[in-house]
Design a protein that fits this description.
Number of strands: 24
GO cellular component, one term: pore complex
Subunit structure: Homotrimer.
Subcellular location: Cell outer membrane
Radius of gyration: 23 Å
Strand content: over 45%
GO molecular function: porin activity
CATH superfamily: Porin
Membrane topology: Multi-pass membrane protein
Order of helices and strands: HEEEEEEEEEHEEEEEEEEEEEEEEE
Number of helices: 2
Strand order of the largest sheet: 2-6-7-8-9-14-15-16-17-18-19-20-21-22-23-24
CATH class: Mainly Beta
CATH topology: Porin
Length: 416
């Protein structure tokens, strides 16, 4: 009864702006936190020759056309949507014993889940859920973990969790398929577009994402063990997963150096799926079985109000053109805060390593390259330390014109 009364009293207590809610029960502390955001965006996809149509793939030969055309349209979806690719809305609970045990180790745990603001139809897919032990220099966790490979995304991308972000459809960091054109292998082993039987248009699914098992910049890692150490300003950790039933073996590594002005990171990811579960089709050139990603980057605070960042990534898994040879991303960003106003943006290049034999052709049979230039620019107005409104613009220009996209976006985010 005492524990229940303490918990109720803490939950009913007034919460001040930017305050962290901590619920104290005997021998434990529970920290409750989260963020709520809502956004609307005006989106235009490439359709200069009117040869594209949105639709979902039914099988290797046909797809169902959507009622949506490819002209500019307003979108608000924030769950499995094309706009908030990994929406900002979440609530988290951190649990920690308030005393040290043997060798200074403290038991701790985390549970986080998502929800969405568009129609509030309930909780979305669960995020992190793990238990572990920690001390001042060592920690271990086991469960569903936030991938270490994504740890730097907030340092390089000032627009993460919005439609102006640099992963996924932004084309600045590895994530998943972006404006995936429906295709199938023909008898000669070449990729050919699937076209609608009714009008001969090419089918494109704008929000489709492949599973990268949490090893790049989308989703989390299930059934993983993490071991980490900290020595002064240096942090290092490794995450390992292995599941024979799911044919999933691999993990992430992170090495990070942090000072008050400079943060430098080196990260890597490795996946051996065991089977051809990443790419459809039966062409042997499309299945290299093992995937490796790595990146190096730095963020520097020129002054307290100005941050510059740069990152290079070499990725075989989660590239925007979804080819087994991957490609390279180079991204730079700036974040400048002046009183209550922040101006921020990024620019990125994707250099594809796709083989000639795996390149797509356009509706007229022309071969399409996959290099892309993306950029984003916007502004935030900080109502408080916890809440801000934002607006901005993102554009992607690819040698594969079917991936071109431009987005105007506006919304609000509140953190607690």
């Amino acid at each position: 009864m005492t524990q229940k009364l303490l918990l109720l009293a803490a939950l009913l207590a007034p919460i001040t702006t930017n305050a962290e809610l901590k619920v104290k029960i005997p021998n434990s502390v529970i920290t409750i936190y989260g963020q709520i955001g809502a956004e609307a965006a005006s989106v235009e996809y490439a359709n200069a020759d009117n040869s594209l149509v949105r639709g979902k793939l039914n099988n290797a030969l046909s797809f169902t056309e959507s009622s949506d055309d490819m002209d500019r349209q307003t979108l608000t979806a924030d769950r499995y949507g094309n706009i908030l690719n990994d929406g900002p809305n979440l609530i988290g609970f951190d649990f920690e014993l308030d005393k040290e045990l043997l060798a200074g180790m403290i038991p701790y745990a985390r549970y986080r889940t998502t929800f969405h603001t568009t129609n509030n139809s309930g909780l979305g897919p669960g995020l992190e859920a793990w238990v572990g032990l920690k001390s001042s220099i060592f920690h271990m966790k086991y469960g569903k973990l936030r991938g270490a490979y994504r740890a730097a995304k907030g340092l390089i991308d000032p627009w993460i969790y919005t439609s102006m972000q640099a992963r996924g459809s932004g084309g600045g960091m590895s994530s998943g398929r972006y404006n995936e054109v429906h295709w199938n292998w023909n008898a000669a082993g070449d990729r050919r577009f699937v076209v609608a039987e009714s009008n001969g248009k090419v089918g494109i699914e704008t929000g489709r994402v492949i599973s990268t098992f949490g090893l790049v910049h989308n989703s989390d890692i299930s059934g993983a063990l993490e071991l980490g150490v900290k020595f002064g300003q240096v942090n290092a950790r490794i995450q390992v997963m292995g599941d024979d039933q799911a044919d999933r073996h691999g993990g992430n590594v992170e090495l990070k150096y942090t000072t008050s002005l400079l943060t430098v990171w080196l990260l890597g990811a490795y996946l051996d799926p065991g089977k051809n579960v990443i790419h459809p089709g039966e062409n042997a050139n499309w299945d290299n079985n093992k995937y490796q990603n790595w990146k190096i980057g730095a963020q520097y605070k020129v002054m307290p109000t100005l941050k510059l960042a740069i990152q290079y990534e070499d990725g075989e898994l989660g590239s925007i053109d979804n080819n087994p040879n991957g490609g390279q991303y180079l991204i730079g960003s700036v974040d400048y805060k002046l009183d209550k106003l922040t101006i921020a943006g990024w620019v990125a290049n994707y250099f594809s390593d796709i083989q000639e034999s795996l390149k797509l052709t356009d509706i007229d049979g022309g071969i399409l390259d996959e290099d892309a230039l993306s950029w984003s620019l916007g502004a935030k107005y900080h109502l408080t330390q916890s809440a801000h409104i934002f607006a901005g613009y993102r554009q992607t220009d690819s040698d594969n014109d079917y991936r071109d996209e431009n987005v105007f976006s506006a919304g609000m985010l509140y953190k607690f």
